[in-house]
Amino acid sequence: GSSWNNCDFETNLCRVLPEFNLQPGWIRRNGQSGMGPPYFDHNGNESAYFLSLSSEMQSSSAALRTSVFLPTDEEHLCQIRFHYWVSRMSRTLVVGLQKLSEDTVTNIWQVSGELRNQWNVNTITINSTEKFEVIFSGMVETQRQGESVAIDDITFSEGC
Fold this sequence. Notes:
- The chain is an all-beta fold.
- The protein has a single domain (5-156), classed as Jelly Rolls, CATH 2.60.120.
- It is 0% helix and 42% strand.
- The chain contains no helices and 10 strands.
- Strands 1, 2, 3, 5, 8 and 10 form a 6-stranded antiparallel sheet that branches.
- Strand 6 and strand 7 form a beta hairpin.
- The radius of gyration is 15 Å and the shape is globular.
- It holds the Pfam family MAM.
């Protein structure tokens, strides 16, 4: 509903993902950018924007970090819904949880490349007794043309 914070990447402004312009591995683009698939966003729109891993990535992974969320409670779990595109087996998208008291990121969901090129949707529910950040990481084993990881329309429930 309208209470969800939505990041559709149509503008550079995204309150929950304050850093996405600064992440070297993730780029905001659309299907007409000439950078390979996806050639449209999850609604099939060629001119609408999404995030994808840059083909010029310097390292094997790129992290996209949310702002810090407050602890969840039983009435307000944090639900995050997002659309994703992962092509080919050498690509992986991981969603991790980092509690502020811990240095490590706990992986809570991941998907590796499926051979069909299409957008999928997923919702994850987070229950945390302390403040936390959520991290979307795209990983690349080998650089090949025409392969990509992309994210579109990330929405955060009011429990986040």
